[in-house]
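ARCHIVE CARD
CATEGORY: sequence design from structure
SOURCE FIELD: tokenized fold
FIELD CONTENT:
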């Protein structure tokens, strides 16, 4: 794993630790849910890793601080 990517499975595991459920099928992308919040999860491609810039955008939408994310 490069320092600029994170495995998709790690993203899902950490979101579950934060109370999200899923992923669920939903149109073009799977999503995870927490209360009324639905968070789109990237489709797995090739290496099944996502770039840190996409991770930051996902965390922003989930209202999760990037620094706190690193402590999980």
């Amino acid at each position: 794993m490069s320092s600029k990517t994170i495995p998709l499975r790690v993203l899902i595991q950490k979101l579950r630790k934060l109370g999200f459920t899923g992923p669920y099928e939903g149109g073009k992308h799977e999503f995870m849910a927490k209360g009324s919040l639905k968070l789109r999860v990237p489709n797995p491609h090739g290496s099944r890793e996502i770039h840190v810039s996409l991770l930051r955008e996902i965390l922003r939408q989930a209202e999760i601080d990037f620094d706190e994310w690193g402590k999980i």
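CARD ANNOTATION: The mean pLDDT is 89. The longest strand covers residues 30-34.
SHELF: design records, drawer C
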